[in-house]
């Protein structure tokens, strides 16, 4: 057991486990009902079902206590011993609870079980440990698969981000290099803005807040406006919801608008958020058709991999891209 999360079972898992345990107890006791005359009483079926359910609930309680308060502070080499102990105790207590309930109400099956109650109690403890061990292996295997899938997804997203960063830096540095021989002051201002942009952009998080992304967009437009003599006007909606979006998502669409939409006249770029859409529109040159190059394909892939939305566009009076999000809370 190399990861503590391997021992954790979700509430949904416990619901399934309790349900399956109850069915198992029902069918086992139902089998005894038919093959053994001493157990030919309907209370046998109820006792088996209640015992299985109480053992399952006891296991849920003790494993939750173990995971949250004991295992995190215990060396991993003792985990199996602790798990065995709690599994055994769960089986013993679970059976004793159901036994005492039936004994208290003087249900007929108790008279058959009473001579063997100690043997059955110990056997219940060992059987619970065995079932718990098998369940533990299954849960561990499932979480390992999920961890591998998560790492693969993380690596894919990181690869896409690494593909995008050089693309942006090349364009920004190219803009600054053109200014060096034309206007030294503007070049210095551009470097200052680029430095501020990179400080905000250097984060390992794939998702950042909409506010942080907008701040990077403002800095990026400031860099481009130095190059294009303030021909770019950026308008941003006042109310920005507190949501997470992929890093460089809006910036990339703004960069695309400047690259393909800027003409000799001014370019107005608007960023609006409506319901579950982030809309980036511009009044610049409208292309006859849209081709998804490296940047747009990259953004669409990241939206899909992160499972938060998709990239769409339409050409009406203005060139409009929108990031369609699955949910905005």
UniProtKB/TrEMBL annotation:
<keyword id="KW-0808">Transferase</keyword>
<feature type="transmembrane region" description="Helical">
    <location>
        <begin position="14"/>
        <end position="35"/>
    </location>
</feature>
<keyword id="KW-0418">Kinase</keyword>
<protein>
    <submittedName>
        <fullName>Histidine kinase internal region</fullName>
    </submittedName>
</protein>
<dbReference type="GO" id="GO:0016020">
    <property type="term" value="C:membrane"/>
</dbReference>
<feature type="transmembrane region" description="Helical">
    <location>
        <begin position="78"/>
        <end position="104"/>
    </location>
</feature>
<feature type="domain" description="Signal transduction histidine kinase internal region">
    <location>
        <begin position="157"/>
        <end position="232"/>
    </location>
</feature>
<keyword id="KW-0472">Membrane</keyword>
<dbReference type="Pfam" id="PF06580">
    <property type="entry name" value="His_kinase"/>
</dbReference>
<dbReference type="InterPro" id="IPR036890">
    <property type="entry name" value="HATPase_C_sf"/>
</dbReference>
<feature type="transmembrane region" description="Helical">
    <location>
        <begin position="116"/>
        <end position="139"/>
    </location>
</feature>
<dbReference type="InterPro" id="IPR010559">
    <property type="entry name" value="Sig_transdc_His_kin_internal"/>
</dbReference>
<dbReference type="InterPro" id="IPR050640">
    <property type="entry name" value="Bact_2-comp_sensor_kinase"/>
</dbReference>
<keyword id="KW-1133">Transmembrane helix</keyword>
<feature type="transmembrane region" description="Helical">
    <location>
        <begin position="42"/>
        <end position="66"/>
    </location>
</feature>
<keyword id="KW-0812">Transmembrane</keyword>
<dbReference type="GO" id="GO:0000155">
    <property type="term" value="F:phosphorelay sensor kinase activity"/>
</dbReference>
């Amino acid at each position: 057991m190399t990861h503590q999360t391997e021992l954790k079972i979700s509430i949904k898992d416990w619901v399934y486990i309790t349900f399956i345990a109850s069915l198992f107890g029902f069918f086992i006791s139902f089998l005894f009902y038919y093959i053994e005359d001493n157990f030919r009483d309907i209370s046998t079926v109820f006792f088996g079902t209640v015992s299985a359910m109480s053992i399952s609930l006891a296991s849920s309680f003790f494993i939750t206590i173990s995971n949250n308060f004991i295992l995190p502070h215990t060396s991993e080499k003792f985990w199996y011993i602790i798990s065995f102990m709690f599994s055994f105790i769960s089986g013993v207590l679970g059976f004793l609870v159901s036994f005492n309930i039936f004994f208290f109400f003087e249900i007929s099956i108790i008279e058959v079980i009473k001579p063997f109650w100690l043997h059955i109690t110990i056997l219940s403890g060992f059987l619970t440990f065995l079932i718990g061990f098998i369940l533990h292996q299954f849960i561990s295997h499932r979480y390992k698969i999920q961890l591998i899938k998560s790492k693969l997804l993380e690596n894919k997203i990181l690869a896409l981000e690494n593909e995008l960063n050089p693309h942006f830096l090349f364009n920004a540095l190219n803009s600054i290099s053109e200014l060096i021989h034309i206007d030294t002051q503007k070049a210095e201002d551009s470097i200052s803005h680029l430095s501020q942009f990179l400080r905000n952009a250097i984060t390992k998080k794939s998702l950042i807040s909409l506010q942080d992304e907008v701040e990077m967009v403002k800095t990026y437009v400031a860099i481009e406006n130095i190059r294009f003599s303030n021909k770019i006007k950026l308008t941003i909606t006042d109310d920005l919801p507190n949501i997470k979006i992929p890093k460089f998502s809006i910036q990339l669409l703004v960069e695309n608008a400047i690259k393909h939409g800027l003409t000799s006249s001014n370019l107005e770029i608007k960023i609006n958020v409506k319901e579950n859409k982030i809309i980036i529109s511009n009044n610049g040159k409208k292309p006859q058709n849209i081709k998804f190059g490296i940047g747009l394909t990259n953004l669409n892939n990241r939206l899909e991999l992160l499972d938060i939305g998709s990239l769409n566009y339409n050409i009406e009076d203005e060139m409009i891209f929108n990031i369609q999000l699955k949910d905005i809370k």
